[in-house]
Amino acid sequence: MTAGHSQQNAAVVLLFIHLCFSGGYQLTELQVGLCHLCNGTVQNGTAVSQFCSASAGLIDGRCCLLRKENIRDADYIIGLDLSNCSLSRVEDLQDAFSATTIDLSLNPIVNLDDSLFEGFIQLANLILPANLVCPGGNASWDKVKVKGETHFCEGQKDICNQTGYLSLNCPENSLCVPYGPGFFQCSCVDAFRGYKCLREGEFPIIQVFGPLAGSTVLVSILLWLTQRRKAISV
Ligand SMILES: *[C@@H]1O[C@H](CO)[C@@H](O)[C@H](O)[C@H]1NC(C)=O
Ligand SMILES: *[C@@H]1O[C@H](CO)[C@@H](O)[C@H](O)[C@H]1NC(C)=O
Ligand SMILES: *[C@@H]1O[C@H](CO)[C@@H](O)[C@H](O)[C@H]1NC(C)=O
Ligand SMILES: *[C@@H]1O[C@H](CO)[C@@H](O)[C@H](O)[C@H]1NC(C)=O
Ligand SMILES: *[C@@H]1O[C@H](CO)[C@@H](O)[C@H](O)[C@H]1NC(C)=O
Predict the structure, then answer these.
(1) Residue 4 included in any domain
(2) Closest ligand to residue 11's CA
(3) Residue 117 resides in a domain
(4) Which one of 156, 183, 201 terminates a domain?
(5) 54, 58, 115, 137: which sits with the fewest CB atoms below 10 Å from its CB?
(6) Residue 187 is part of which domain span?
(7) Of all helices (H) and strands (E), which one includes residue 208?
(8) Could you tell me the sign of the dihedral formed by the alpha carbons of 168, 173, 175, 180, in that order?
(9) What is the pLDDT of residue 132?
(10) How far is the CA of 84 from the centre of ligand 3 (A)?
(11) What is the spatial distance between Cα 195 and Cα 137, in angstroms, rounded to a whole number?
């Protein structure tokens, strides 16, 4: 099956301005449903299994978890293997935001939203069915290759450091930081906070990290820019 993605050589860059507030997000035992979404466990020999043994992680269902022993309830998903699971849609991967390796191959997924991977700053190895494109476009990855039925997206590029690609301007007193494939955020430099980082002062942690403040995004601006690029074969 050859999908028409070769015509789609527009790199979509989602500009995300996240001003000063970042949601503290920690995985608790109740949230690991993603690990048991699919039957079985991470199979021996797969990318996630290899990465997991190399990282001394623990396999739990389809996840590889890293346990921070001195922090209560702090298991982080560092690898997620949802391959061969008859998935036709993937709508929420948020629990795996800290993953380095994610495998969604061998699934009849027709479409993946780029925003699924927003905030996935560690993601360095994403394996997809061949019909899907890498989130953020080829330009967001160091290496993109298609092998048989599988699409490999390897090494996330630092969007804040791409000369000639797009000049990213963050407001004064803030710095561009990568925020997942194709995403960046403008983070206030120390002591500045608020809209456009104009106010100076201590961050009001108690007020902001209230019960509903999982992720307090005040302003987000999405700009869709397209840029024609020649396919670079790797
Ligand atoms: C992205 O890279 C893959 C693999 O090299 C290629 O097949 C595809 O056409 C490229 N897509 C774009 C939009 O350049
Ligand atoms: C996984 O495979 C390797 C070699 O392919 C083997 O040495 C190892 O024992 C296997 N582990 C399990 C749990 O099956
Ligand atoms: C996919 O899963 C089925 C069972 O659900 C199994 O028979 C098949 O071998 C698996 N395919 C691969 C490539 O692992
Ligand atoms: C999971 O296993 C159950 C029982 O073994 C089976 O009925 C179901 O189809 C399996 N689901 C997938 C996605 O393979
Ligand atoms: C930006 O990219 C250049 C070359 O591509 C590299 O030498 C430099 O270390 C990078 N800077 C950061 C902050 O990643």
Answers:
(1) no
(2) 1
(3) yes
(4) 156
(5) 54
(6) 158-218
(7) helix 205-208
(8) negative
(9) 96
(10) 6
(11) 30
